Amino acid sequence: MVKQDLYNKSPIRLFDAATEGGLEPGKIGLITSKKGLGKTSVLVQFGMDTLLKDEQLVHVTFDIHSSNVISWYDSIFTEIAKKTAGNSLELKSDTVSKRTILNFSLDNFSVAKVVNTLKALASAGIVVKGVVLDGMDFEKVSEDDVKAVADYAAAEKITVWTAATTEASTLDQIVPANLEKYFSAVINLNQSGNSVSVNVLKLNDKKDISTGLKLDSKTLLISK
Questions:
Q1: In CA terms, which of 16, 117, 126, 172 is 20 to 30 Å from 158?
Q2: How many helices (H) and strands (E) does the chain have?
Q3: Is the dihedral of CA 132, 137, 140, 145 positive or negative?
Q4: Quick one: angle between helices 66-81 and 89-96, nearest 10?
Q5: Given this model, what pLDDT does residue 136 score?
Q6: How far is it, in rounded angstroms, from Cα 78 to Cα 7?
Q7: Residue 79: its pLDDT value, please?
Q8: Which residue, 66, 145, 63, is CA-closest to 100?
Q9: Contacts of 115 (CB under 8 A, 6+ apart)
Q10: What is the CA radius of gyration of the chain?
Q11: For residue 120, what are the contacts with CB-CB under 8 A and spacing of at least 6?
Q12: In Å, what is the CA distance from 91 to each residue of 80, 96, 97?
């Protein structure tokens, strides 16, 4: 099956292999880095992985132009499809048909709005299995906000990936102490010479997992 081939070739298989299974359903993962190192690409790779499982995905963005988000998914799909015989418009259209993009303005954004929208989708019969939240500003979100997402993810067995911009590279400097317990996975992208390394600072009860993973310099896909 072609879509299964794409799933097998997804760069997330490398992440799962390096972390003994990756992020479990019902948990929240956080991707961090300085600006411009590839957070959005990694977020979309996790989002695309949900779609390749033929599951419903919600991508929450603060970009007023949904076309920018769509372009990221098109690019990631194309790069994965190069490794298989699955690069067709029909297959891509079928894959992304289960993606819902929600646009929020930073001026009136609240985490509660996201959770309420997800609940409304569930009430409408849309069984969401993956959520990508474009960005999380720890100076603006409260513990109640993060807990609300964590509780909803756990109750509905939804995998949530979000991202935060930071100059820091260690777990204690990146995530406020009172919030760390809500994130089952924390990844930091770090410039190392001419490449960007994918450092897993936390996964469940393990810390500083050595993965040997990096971002491909041309495609920004997770690679060895």
A1: 172
A2: 8, 10
A3: positive
A4: 130
A5: 83
A6: 13
A7: 92
A8: 66
A9: 148, 149, 152
A10: 16
A11: none
A12: 12, 9, 10
